[in-house]
Amino acid sequence: MKKKLIFLLVIALALIAVFMFIQAGGNWDYVLPRRGKKVLAMVITGGAIAFSTVVFQTITNNRILTPSIMGLDSLYMLFQTFMVYIFGSAGLTMMGKNVNFIISVGLMALFSLVFYKLLFKREGQNIYFLLLLGLIFGTLFQSLSTFMEVLIDPNEFQIVQDKMFASFNNINTELLVLSIVLMAGIAIYFTRYAKFLDVIALGKDQAVNLGVDYDKVVKRMLIVVAVLISISTALVGPITFLGLLVANVSYQFMRTYRHHFLILGSMLLSVIALVGGQLLVERVFTFSTTLSVIINLAGGVYFIYLLLKESKSS
């Protein structure tokens, strides 16, 4: 297992090295800091999406659902639109991006408790009910955002629009330090619960019979997922299908039930996908398309494949 992780780490580091040094033209003082911030944002974003997806799929006991498909990143964008609607862009500037980010993370954590009651308090929910629930949530959040956008000033509408689309050329670099601190805190906090997730992956009944405090663990893991989605969405915007892709590839590649390895493997795969994809966008396609478009296209096709596979097996 460690050899597989080292293999993925070597590929990720090689891609990062190529991204940092290719066609720099000797302008190291100009090139390295800018590319360094972009790489750092990709590592944090990719890590947060992969981490949250594996945890979310384990507690929902389903490998098709992701936080993005269930509408959590749309909810974060709704909070951002609401803040612009209430305070205006001038008010947000006075508040500061870090304060805005912390308030949004707090609101996401509160909503995760509501999400817990909807998802986990009812028994026997099938995959199609959960997908329908996610579709309703996502549509509701986007509709509410659109409703507020048409009421605000056109200049402030442009600010909201810039946040709505994922872009690694418009990274929110002011949030990088706070995001790193939050990611480190979550990683330390999670080490206490990884062993419980190994058991919860067997199913709720088996986990309860084996002595796991199921409700307590699931509530805490949903808050972790909400914070991770807030970090990734705040830095670059929503990327719907990245988590689905890297988590399922990690299951196939790692072939283990231990979440320490699964999460590390999916995070490294996510970094490889983002850095390698951004290299293609910049050096091969010369910015004629964006990385989020490529990932969502590939992820959408893979999502349909998983749905068809699930319907045949049921």
TrEMBL record:
Record's keyword terms, sorted: Cell membrane, Ion transport, Iron, Iron transport, Membrane, Transmembrane, Transmembrane helix, Transport
Any Gene Ontology biological process: siderophore-iron import into cell
One Pfam family matching this protein: FecCD
GO cellular component: plasma membrane
Signal peptide extent: none
Membrane topology, record value: Multi-pass membrane protein
Keyword Ligase: no
InterPro entries in alphabetical order: ABC_BtuC-like, ABC_transptr_permease_BtuC
SUPFAM superfamilies: ABC transporter involved in vitamin B12 uptake, BtuC (SSF81345)
Membrane-crossing segments per the record: 6-27, 39-59, 65-87, 99-120, 126-152, 173-190, 221-249, 261-281, 287-308
One example GO MF annotation: transmembrane transporter activity
Subcellular location field: Cell membrane
Keyword Ion transport in record: yes
UniProt family annotation: Belongs to the binding-protein-dependent transport system permease family. FecCD subfamily.
PANTHER family: FERRIC ENTEROBACTIN TRANSPORT SYSTEM PERMEASE PROTEIN, PETROBACTIN IMPORT SYSTEM PERMEASE PROTEIN YCLO
Protein name (Swiss-Prot/TrEMBL): ABC transporter permease protein YclO
Organism of origin: Paenibacillus azoreducens
